[in-house]
Amino acid sequence: MPPMATLFTRIINREIPAEIVYEDDHVVAFRDIDPKAPTHILIVPRQEIPGVAELPDSGDHLHLLNAAKKIAEQEGLTNGYRLVINQGNDGGQTVPHLHVHLLGGRSLSWPPG
Ligand code: 5GP
Fold first, then answer.
1. May I ask the CATH architecture of the domain 7-59+76-104?
2. Which residues contact 42 (CB under 8 A, 6 or more apart)?
3. Most CB within 10 Å of its CB: which of 11, 29, 31, 66?
């Protein structure tokens, strides 16, 4: 039996609905179901990399930052934004498929909780 597809792969494959805002050969981006800011988008490599701790030397994750820049422009986030990757339990990661949170549309406090 092949391993179960991750939640985000199922969104990428249109098996679970989501508002997809961007996609290319390497990444897919969609709005977070529980947004923490007026703009809250998840940018996900098509490749099922569990997290930063498992990053291969090459692959779809190398395109995440460039996609984030394009999506931020597309969303009109001219006043700034934040990119977040939660890693593992202490990082608060809940979905084991690497993703970058793009948060914007309000002033974000620092440090995060
Ligand atoms: P993490 O906690 O792993 O850093 O981020 C996972 C994110 O996925 C959370 O912000 C959560 O709200 C979002 N999420 C969980 N399930 C779904 C879903 O079914 N659809 C969408 N669009 N986002 C989801």
1. 2-Layer Sandwich (3.30)
2. 8, 29, 30, 31, 32, 99, 100, 101, 102
3. 29
